[in-house]
Amino acid sequence: MDNILAIWTKEGLLRDNNDDGVIDGTAVFIDLPDHLAPEGLIDFCARLGYETTSLSLRFFEHGNSAVKMSFIYSDVKTEIRLENWELIVRYKSEAELSDLLKLIAAMDPEESAGTSDTIEFKDGKLAAGQVFIKTIEGRGEEAHPEINSLSDLWSFSGVGKNNEASPSKLLHLNVSIEETVKTAELLKGLCDFAARSAMYSTDIVFPVTGERSSGGLRLEVLEDSSASLELTEPNVLQLKGPKELVGSAAHHLAREKHWSEGGAFGYWEQGYSLKQKTEAPLLFEAEWEDVQETEMAYRILKDSEDLSGADIEIFLSEPGEVRRELKKKWKDLFPEVKSLKVRSAFKTALHWLVEEVLPELGDSGEAVQGLEIKVKKESSENGLELPIRWIQEMYPADRLIEEEFGLKAELVNYQLEDKSEHTYVVFRVDERGMRHFVSSLDVPVSELPYVDGKHYVYPVSSAVRVRTGEGAVREQIIQTDRERFYRFYTEEVLPRLRREVADYREGQGHTRPLFDRIEIDVWMSEEERKLPVDEERISSLEALHEDLYFNTLDYFAHMGEELEGKSFNAPGGVHPFMHVREGEKPEAYIRVYSWVDKPLEDWVTTSIRFDEKGALAEAVMTNGKEEVTLSVEAFEKPEGHIHPDVQHWLSEQDSYRILYPDHSYRGHAIPIIECFMDAGEEFYSPLKMSLFKKTIFIEAGHHSNEVSSTPAVLQLLERADNKFGDWLKDVNLVILPLANPDGYELVTKLIEEHPEWKHHAARYNAVGLEYSLVRFQKTVFGEANIYPEILRRWAPDVIVDDHGIPAHEWVQPFAGYNSPPRFPVSYFLPSAKIYGIGRLSSGNYRDLHVGNLEAVVERISQYISGTGIEKENKYWQERFRKYGNQWLPAVFPIEEAPGIHFYRQADVAPSYSTIGISRYPDWIAAEVISEAADEVVYDEVLESCIEAHIVFNLAILEVLQKAGIEVKRNGLSYERVRPINLS
What we know:
This is Zinc carboxypeptidase. By secondary structure, the chain is of the alpha/beta class. The chain has 21 helices and 49 strands.
């Protein structure tokens, strides 16, 4: 240091410890005599903290590289001089010394352009030679952090807490000290407190001590018989205690860490909340059992009049082996029957085609160069089924025919018929391209109301159909075992539950559930078979699992619309457990657990008490009705993590910071990973770090049955190191590796019996809520708080949300044989190995966001080009066109980019106020979703999905790394031009 005017630069008292171009430390040893306590030193240290992104509170400790600051009494003048690389402060009085330090703290940074070895306190101003130095008093017009509870003092986002995130943060702090307790020891503690508070800010108001301007945060230090910190009104704190103890209390207070970082501060509130949770009591139970549909079919045959010479078709929801045994058994019992077919009542056409039509065609010896299948167009007026419903029920017939009969899938084609006598008519195409009739099929259906009370659904039904020799047809519909149970559930169980929760309180169904959970166990004889095609399978019970889950959610969503005009999106957990029990009668057992409702209480910490050594000992909370006193205890980071990949990564890594911002509804601590260039300091200001560097936030595991995103984000770090080298010099990365641990806990239970189902019951949180809807609200769902907390703490430029889609067919016969009606587009089959969704804002920044998104899409396309990902995307795009897009492009949309679908339309990614780019379009540059076909996959397929996510995210990282930023300084205020331009 050879110029005292450069005091607030890295040539002065500031340091860039890791050589990334950002100030991340200070280097000063303040040798304060015991008899001095100039309040202006608090301002001086506040400026030290304000100028850095990270800090260790060692101002009053010797350091090898620190600039020493000494104090000498002088009866001549008050000044600060640079002598032999030391700062010598001469003072005529403590009052003048205090004023000198206050003015130096408020020096205009532009003044450092000059050269001098002395700054003199002259006529109440600072002077270097004959030139007065400009100082700045902060404006204090911006919003400042709020402290409405003492737990907000050191919050996850720094000092104070705001509901809304912002890339700027004002510190408007005033510290006043009662003369009777003023000591050098107390002053040191308050200097640390002010420095740490200022570090979290991008703008600051000076002076910090002395005459108070209106607004802001006030800390009053007073003498009292016992040491405590009191919140006398919002933003007004009183640190009280005897003279010999209050300094130690200030020292400890300045160094306390928020509980999310492994400290104790604020954990009394979190811990108290966790302890209030109890096991939900049983509300009611219900049982169901019935005879098998096979028994019903047999009774119809037995009771039928003359079957002599009849052709009989029987449709049953039974496994293929059971159907074959029944056919043999019934032919023996009814020898007079001319022909007997026992067909599946689930995906009837697919089974008919591969079990009957193709084998018979092969036996005929006729040339087959292709198949054309005429399919009846669905046209029910109030039905939920799509017009292509009967094409959907064929999926994936063409690929199955290719695998099992050798006829290429592209030679199997469908025609949708507005009017047709039959549900299906199959023609073979010969070597000359001529068509020849092969067979036809009429599929029996049932009718039942959908849970919204407005629509109907028409699932395939079991039936006995008898054609006599005279041409007469008698058909008797039999409800499948699945339909009869589903009717019992929707007609008896759900209405009873509705009555039970009718006396709900305000907020239930939205910010807290109506009931805790429904557990459903179903035992049925149904087909469970994996196909030799992609990840496809035949599973009517998986379809029932999906119907029970989503249709229950829709039932209560409709109830909310009826009662309040808005959906109940948090009704309670729905946990369907399906059990295959071949050849036995169907039964089910249902348990419903109640939610013991306690309205959300605003517990406020009004007092913190210190022990005889000045350490935090107790916290006093009140909800306005009662008061509780709690011990101050540190949060203990969990020994293990529920996800094995996260657990392994946490146990192996030592390079990045792990924090726990909140607990899930079921009490799981949720970790986040912060990746930045370490400066070796004790405290960090992520908000200020994101001021000087671009920041990206990646969320994984939001829907826990989407299994590839969590391992992908953990592997991303090593891949980024290998590809970009010292990329953290340019970018900060925040990772939420498993956003929904409650969902993951459920999916681990569900896959024990059915490891390859999609298990959407684990899609949302523990109470069936898409919890992103309640972000930025006071809620019992801690998982909903993580995203807002990260935005408050980091103000990221880019947000990436890694998701997944089904890896195999998604059907719900009792919801229109499609993915749920709640989704505006269809997800009935995979559309890609991975595709992207870009969220766009409305308003003044839309054009910039569109340009940013195009830059991201272009780079992702470049990364994917020529890879196996592009090849798989092309394969799935062709499948998606064949079975959906060519018929209903609005329901099965495709927005192409080279090598990948990338959707920008609101139908695919609707905008709402709890999405970052919608809420903060003025500073978030881009928000992107990835969707890999990973529900639920393993081994090579899982690895391919992981790779797809990694490649997708690496491309976005590169776009952000190469983008330029512009940081401006206006006096003491820092700001960055946002949103950044990624193109």
